[in-house]
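Handout, tutorial session.
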Amino acid sequence: MPRELDFFFYIGSTYSYLSIMRVDEIAAREGLALRWRPFSVRSIMLEQNNRPFVGKPVKLAYMWRDLERRAHRYGIPFTSPPEYPVDPDGLANRVAVVASLEGWCPEYTKATYRAWFLDNKAPGEVQHLRSILRALGKDPERTIARADDPEIRARYDGETEHAKGLGIFGSPTFMWGKEIFWGDDRFEDAIEWAGAHPDS
């Protein structure tokens, strides 16, 4: 089994779209597995009084244009800026916790981001969530009920605290050993580091 590169992500992070749509293929090509780890970067940002785009229209406009350019560079579809911010209750992310425990997190997360970025179906809205889950062959009611269970809420909160304790403050973040690589544009750096330091 290849060693795992930890992939901390938050459904609701705009730049995470670029990573989520490409990291599996690249990691597999490099002989690495990814461990998908949903966490609440929103909670960390609020605690640190760091909301980079909300209420900052000039920076927000730049972010969307930058995302569009980078998506084009990677061959990832981008139509127009979708609704933002999203998932205020964290439901889409707690479903990702369920999916990570049950082994279908990559499929769910990619489907959620496609629905958000290409069809402007905001993550966390129950009607959108049900549609995504049905398309993946999952029972929407069972899955949503499990995502609302105190055990899953505690796991989500615990993973968020763990990420914060590691020094993680943004999404996406990649981690190999004790080395942290923040941002989609640092994914290749993380891959390179893992290859050069396989035992770190």
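The second record follows below. Compare its token runs with those of the first.
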Amino acid sequence: MDWDKLRIFYAVAEAGSFTHAGETLNLSQSAVSRQISTLEESIGVSLFHRHARGLILTEEGELLHNTAGEIFGKLAMIEGQLADSKQLPEGPLRITVAEFIGSTWLAPKLQQLREEHPDIQMIMLLDDRILNLGMREADAAIRLYKPEQPDLVQRHLTDIHFHICASKDYLKKSGTPKSVKDLQNHALVGYPENVPAPFADPNWLFRIAELEPETNRNVIMLNSIYGIFEAVKSGAGIAALPDYLIARDKDLVTILPDAIRPPVGVYFVYPEERRHSKRIGIFKDFLLKTIESSKL
């Protein structure tokens, strides 16, 4: 089987269309379609059902897609292990991290890592989706929940604590809620449903206030914790935010201090096969040292 055609097939199966796969592969739609047709002819089976809304894998296509995924995943892991075998900690290091942690806490500290290890090329993927480390979508991850996969090495870094807060300007205009029930009469800022969330129960505030955001017009929903922080700073409403973000702005006031959501655990995670990676080890030590010297 032609490896190049198999690579194109896998990209098409992942993308669900010739056009989107072509964008990923930097090929024209017609070139991708032609390669898939040639592959189907060579193996004598149809791999896709073609219809106006896109492509659906046939039963044979599903089998080939699953097998190709395993093959490419193993190749990617071996590539990482070969890079890890070098004596010097050098080369790219792809870290996936929740958007708000990456942008507000980690990114400002990367210059220190660069000064200590200039040969490591940091690539930070700010994404609330869970990327597949086994398929080497990233080398390691900072995740805001305890991973369950047995093939992942995990290190608990710290816990993020939250409190309910609002700006002084908002409280001056709208008053300060005296109880959790009073929140129903205030503007609340939260996280949209049915989108990748950075941690479990991001709308804890709505739940304790017994408020349904879908039926309440006095809410603002943003799929970014940093965006929620900026909205609260501007006086848009009340939200539950990490303590380290609240402490950054003297205009933010903690309210209802007895209403405390469970802390969110922060974990550094990487595949078992990468246990001896010098670059991952250096980054793990950097995280531990940074957390000791700064609040998160």
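Points raised in discussion: DSSP finds eleven helices and twelve strands in the chain.
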